[in-house]
Amino acid sequence: MAMDYREFVQTQIAELKNTVGDATAINALSGGVDSSVVTVLGHRALGKRLRTVFVDNALMREGEPQRVVATFTQMGIPVELIDARQEFLDALAGLTDPEEKRQAITETFYAKVFGRLVRESGAKFLLHGTILTDIDETVAGIKRQHNILSQLGIDPEKEYGYQVLEPLKTLRKDGVRAVAKVLGLGPELSERIPFPGPALAARIVGEVTAERLETVRAATAIVEEELADGKAFQYLAVLLNDRATGIRDNQREFGQIVVVRCIDSLDARTATVTRLEWDKLERVCERIVQIKGVNRCLYDLTPKPPATVEYI
Ligand code: XMP
Q1: Cβ partners under 8 Å of residue 304, min gap 6
Q2: Using CA atoms, how far apart are residues 138 and 144, in angstroms rounded to an integer?
Q3: Is 31's C-beta closer than 6 angstroms to any atom of ligand 1?
Q4: By CB atoms within 10 Å of each CB, which of 14, 27, 29, 173 scores lowest?
Q5: Ligand 1 mean position to 246 CA, how many Å?
Q6: How confident is the model over 56-92, as pLDDT tens digits?
Q7: What is the rounded CA–CA span in Å between residue 274 and residue 233?
Q8: DSSP 8-state secondary structure symbol assigned to residue 204
């Protein structure tokens, strides 16, 4: 039976009101469709008793923090911008193992930056945009997602002093987009391509540094601009941890390698590679190798499985 998303919205708002009662809640908005929907649901349910923050973790796309805060301010939902860039970069310094990188981001986010904000605010509840796919893949041991503490057997109340509420945990991505429409979110939010919790760190193989982030951020901007007019489910750029010889201005150059990934999918559980036009691929490549230090651009032809969408 098809799900009634209006009823879903009413039920979730009523449940949030009920659970939070007279207490206050806090949530972190990342600008993706999941956390955007949670933010709007939360504000409808709790009004001023919900504090929404946007944590700049240094791993965001170009101009993203300012753009997200402006969009929600226009909707009458105040969002506080928290600058935690240095804290995340310090936590990631020297790490190259994918799970250790994810772990460092999770810990910095929940135990440090967020823990601090929650303690300061006195909030007893944290609203989180976990969806069913995150839970499935974490339980299956495929990947440690960013947001599934209790499914991993971690009690956030005991460890960090707050209770996590996950109003979207029964939905997949298509369901979340349907709810976004019911809530009246514009297509610039409801139709956004998915973006992972660990943000651009999920697209850097090897160490995450400010400089390497600049490279992948520039490549991401190009890929998103060039591929936005297609129908692909998700498109991204990845910085490899390898180098390759090239020639620039008649000089040999040992340059960086960027991978472009573009996939078709319904819910990211499986994916096939988008058959992009050759001209489009050449144009993307031409622009990416203009980024400082990058002299190769590759297109990833691997479906999921065996590959995942992201690289860490
Ligand atoms: P993978 O790489 O697991 O990605 O095939 C499947 C989908 O999930 C996104 N993704 C994440 N989303 N937190 C999230 O909220 C995460 O840690 C995370 N890792 C991957 C990914 O972009 C893709 O759409």
Answers
A1: 263, 265, 268, 269, 270, 271
A2: 5
A3: no
A4: 14
A5: 33
A6: 999 999 999 999 999 999 999 999 999 999 999 999 9
A7: 9
A8: B
Ligand 1 centroid to residue 60 C-alpha, Å: 15
- Is the CB of residue 274 less than 8 Å from the CB of residue 226? no
Tokens 């944290």, residue? 126
Q: What is the mean pLDDT of residues 163-189?
A: 92
Measured CA to CA in angstroms, residue 55 lies from 27, 195, 245, 273 at distances of: 10, 15, 38, 32
Query: Which amino acid, 43?
Result: H
Strands (E), 111-172: 125-127, 163-165
Distances, alpha carbon 27 to alpha carbons 17, 34, 115, in Å: 15, 12, 12
Per the CB < 8 A criterion, the answer to whether 295 and 230 are in contact is: no
Residue whose Cα lies nearest atom 4 of ligand 1: it is 309
Q: Is 243 in the pocket of ligand 1 (CB under 6 A)?
A: no
Identify the pLDDT of residue 134: 81
Residue carrying the six token digits 């193992």? 97
SS3 81: strand
Three-state SS for 251-308 is EEEEEEEEEEEEEECCCCCCEEECCCCHHHHHHHHHHHCCCCCEEEEEECCCCECCCC
Q: How far apart are CA 167 and CA 169, in angstroms?
A: 6
Across residues 157-171, what is the average pLDDT? 85
pTM: 0.88
Q: Which amino acid is at 213?
A: L
Closest CA to 239 of 255, 251, 253: 255
